[in-house]
Amino acid sequence: MILLSNRNTGNPYINLAIEEFVVRHSDFSTEDFLLLYINEPAVVLGKNQSVYKEVSFEALKSGAVHLCRRISGGGTVYHDAGNISFAFFSPFAEQKVNNYRYFNRPVVEALQKLGVPAEMDSRNNILCAGKKISGNAQFTNRKVILSHGTLLFNSQLNLLRAALAINPFRVESKAVSSVRSEVMNLQTVLPDMQDAQQLLNYLIAELKPASTYAFSEEQWAQINRSADEKFKSAGWVYGRSPHTTIHKKEGRITVEEGRIASITWDGPDLQFLIGTYYHYSALQIAIASSGIADKEELLARLF
Predict the structure, then answer these.
(1) CA nearest 151: which of 57, 95, 233, 87?
(2) CB atoms within 10 A of CB 126
(3) What angle do CA 182, 166, 299 make, to 5 degrees?
(4) Domain limits at 119?
(5) Looking at the whole model, is its pTM more than 0.85?
(6) Residues 74 and 167 reside in one and the same domain
(7) C-beta of residue 135 within 8 angstroms of C-beta of residue 178
(8) In this model, does residue 129 exceed pLDDT 90?
(9) C-alpha dihedral (99, 105, 183, 13), degrees to nearest 10
C-alpha cells in the first residue's frame, strides 16, 4: 500500500478532487493506495442526494461550513477538525464491490489494538459500544475501486446535529435519504489521545504504507482545477440534486437540477426567479435586482 500525500490540506474540495483524480487515472490502477486527511468544517453529500432534503437551511444560509458533494453514493456526513477521513483505492475486482469489511478491517483492528470495542454493522458503519463512529461509501469505474469513510474523534457533535437537522417544512424528493444514527466520538474511549491528528498518525503507523506518493505539479494543477471548476460549482453541489419540491407556508417551490423550475406563492409574482439556483446567495442577488419592496422579508420566507 502506498500513502498519498495531500500536502496536509484541509480544503474539502481539493481532497474530494484528489479522490476522483486517483480513481480516474490509469497510473493508479495497479497498486493499492491510501489517503488520510482532516477537513475544514464541511457537509458532504452523497452523489445522489438532494441538498434540500439533507441539510438544514439555517446551516446553508450561515455559510459557516463548506457544502460539498462526493463522487460516491451513500448518506450525508459532517467533517471538521475532529473528524478523520480515510480513502482506500484498489485495483478493481468484483469481490471488492460492497465488501466494506475487506477495506475496513485494518482500521477496525487498529482501533481494537487501542482498546476500542470497534465492530462493523450490517449497514457498513463502524460502531463503538453500539454507536456510530464511521460511515462508509464506495465508487468504482471498474478499473479502480474507492472505498472511503470517516472516523469521529472529537468532532463538534452539536454542530453536526445542527447542520444535518431536519427542516421545519416539508421537502419531497425521491433522492437517496441518509439513515440517521446515534453517533459518538472516539475520544470518549481514548481520553489520553489529544486530537484527531494524533489518531491519524497512529493509523499511518499501524497500516504501514510501503512508501509515500507525491503528486507532480502537473497533477496538482489538474486536481486544483477540478476542485474549483467541478467540486465547488453550484452545478455539482446543487445541480446534482434530484427533483425536489419544497413546501413553505406561503407556497411551493419545485427545483430541478438545483434551479427553480416552478413556484406558486401567496404574495408577489415570483416568476422572475424561475431558472435561478435555489440557494441563498443566488436568491439574494436575484431579489436585490427586482422591484419588490421588502426584499429581506421575502428572502427569509423563500429560504
Answers:
(1) 87
(2) 24
(3) 150
(4) 2-237
(5) yes
(6) yes
(7) no
(8) yes
(9) -70
Residue found under cell 474549483: 228
Q: What is the CATH number of the domain that holds 106?
A: 3.30.930.10
* 159 and 29 fall within a common domain: yes
Sequence-ordered strand ranges (E) for 123-258: 126-128, 131-134, 136-140, 144-152, 170-173, 211-214, 244-248, 251-256
Q: How many residues does the chain have?
A: 303
Instruction: Return the C-alpha cell found at 70.
Output: 462526493
The 136-140 sheet, strands edge to edge? 136-140, 144-152, 83-91, 33-37, 2-5, 211-214
How large a percentage of the chain has pLDDT more than 70? 100
**Domain match, 254 and 228 both:** no
- Our count of domains for the chain comes to 2
Q: pLDDT by residue (tens digit) across 49-59?
A: 999 999 999 98
Indicate if 186 and 64 belong to the same structural domain: yes
pLDDT at 153: 98
